[in-house]
TrEMBL record:
This is ABC transporter related protein. Part of the ABC transporter complex HmuTUV involved in hemin import. Responsible for energy coupling to the transport system. Residues 2-239 form the ABC transporter domain. Gene3D superfamilies: P-loop containing nucleotide triphosphate hydrolases. NCBIfam families: PRK13548.1 (NF010068). InterPro entries: AAA+_ATPase, ABC_transporter-like_ATP-bd, ABC_transporter-like_CS, P-loop_NTPase.
Length: 254
């Protein structure tokens, strides 16, 4: 559904990200992993339009990005950046409501959609709180609600890009957000793409894993195909150990 061709971003002659051909699929939770500086955020920023790359190199549902009206594209492509800065003290629910800008909703439908988006990230209790007083993890989940709201009127399967959505979250919330990402893919048909550093979360929840190294995708497949100890040693320079999880088909790398 999302096709990328000849994607290239260089600064000062150094290629920071190159993807000759990448397809992202509806109903699939894709996880991007790789060492610091591998180009994961750059890839997401490129898709999100933040790098000014040519829009005709990407197509969504067979239509090139430059042929999509901006608001229609915003209803189908949502991005949770690694950092979101806000300097005014809005209530958390007003921050979420910012996601409604490409939508056409009555006032009451908008209020309800905001609450639905907050319920999905377990932030309902924060609705009236000043956003600036929230903890890092609470802010991250409120921002995710904003992006979920933005996609709630998509006419065809949307793409959700998450740049390190679990970086500020406690253990339980990390699993909840990964479960939500998998559910949005499997039950709602979203193409969900998340950058994660935790390879065990990637293996447990991802349908597909892309490994990036020095700006390029060097492995692409199911977690079992891609995340073995050899790959971990080669890509991260870390000699891990694999431990089987009882009564399950997956293993953790420690
Ligand atoms: N606008 C830019 N100008 C110069 N260098 C850049 C620019 N954007 C990114 N880089 C460099 O490109 C490389 C990839 O950065 P990127 O943020 O994509 O890495 P990452 O894989 O997301 O890393 P991390 O896991 O640390 O978040 C880094 O070396 C970074 O310093």
């Amino acid at each position: 559904m999302l096709e990328i061709r000849d994607f290239h971003f260089a600064v000062g002659g150094r290629t920071l990200m190159q993807a000759d051909h990448l397809n992202l699929h509806a109903g699939e939770f894709t996880v991007i992993v790789g060492p610091n500086g591998a180009g994961k955020s750059t890839l997401l920023k490129g898709i999100a339009g933040d790098l000014g790359l040519p829009r005709h190199t990407m197509a969504l549902h067979g239509r090139r990005f430059n042929q999509w009206p901006a608001t229609a594209l915003a209803r189908h492509l949502g991005v949770l950046p690694q950092h979101s800065t806000l300097t005014f003290g809005f209530a958390a629910r007003d921050v979420v409501a910012m996601g409604a800008y490409p939508l056409s909703l009555s006032e009451s439908a908008r209020r309800e959609a905001v609450l639905d988006a907050m319920a999905a990230t377990d932030t309902t209790a924060l609705a009236e709180k000043d956003y600036l007083t929230l903890s890092g993890g609470e802010k991250q989940r409120v921002q995710l609600s904003r992006v979920l709201l933005q996609l709630c009127q998509a006419e065809s399967d949307p793409v959700l890009l998450l740049d390190e959505p679990t970086s500020a979250l406690d253990l339980a919330q990390q699993h909840r957000i990964c479960q939500l990402a998998a559910k949005l893919a499997h039950q709602n048909g979203y193409a969900v793409v998340a950058v994660l550093h935790d390879l065990n979360l990637a293996s447990r929840y991802g349908d597909r894993v892309l490994v990036m190294e020095q700006g390029r995708i060097v492995a692409d497949g199911s977690p079992a195909e891609v995340l073995d100890l050899n790959r971990v040693a080669r890509t991260w320079g870390y000699q891990g150990q694999a431990v089987a999880v009882p009564d399950s088909h997956y293993q953790v790398i420690v």
